[in-house]
Amino acid sequence: MGKIEVLAERAARRRRRAEVPLIATPEEARAVAREVVERLSAVSGDERLLLLAALGDLSRGLSDRLQHLQREMAADRAAILALNSGLQACGGYARAARRD
After folding, report:
1. Domain parsing of the chain, residue ranges
2. Nearest-angstrom CA–CA distance, 74 and 68
3. Local confidence band at 28 (pLDDT 50, 70, 90 cut-offs)
4. 40: which of 3, 21, 30, 93 lies 20 to 30 Å off by Cα?
5. What are 42-82's pLDDT values in tens digits?
6. DSSP class per residue in 37-96
């Protein structure tokens, strides 16, 4: 079983837990891409269909992970904006107090 199938199985198991990365490093992503190219050129027929199905599972897992990260980033962005707004208000109060 190649890395693609291992990642596809991992994606299927983690479908509900998108907080866990399937591919952790750029090097791992490049290794998967190389394996996809090599294996697609080496297999035919039913093996190719199985490989494409595994790639579909992997793609869905990566999409779930991306959506999870986008939600986290949006929440973090909102928290940062709220913090900035609070800091600006504090700065305004401090300037007003110095004038009095």
Report:
1. 3-99
2. 10
3. confident
4. 21
5. 888 888 888 888 888 888 888 888 888 899 999 999 999 99
6. HHHHHH--THHHHHHHHHHHHHHHHHHHHHHHHHHHHHHHHHHHHHHHHHHHHHHHHHHH
CA distances from 4 to 31, 80, 81, 93 (A): 10, 38, 40, 58
Neighbours of 22 (CB within 10 A): 19
Residue 20, amino acid: V
CA atoms of 80 and 58, how far apart (whole Å): 33
pTM of full prediction above 0.70: no
Which residue from 39, 34, 69 is spatially nearest to 54, judged by alpha carbons?
A: 39
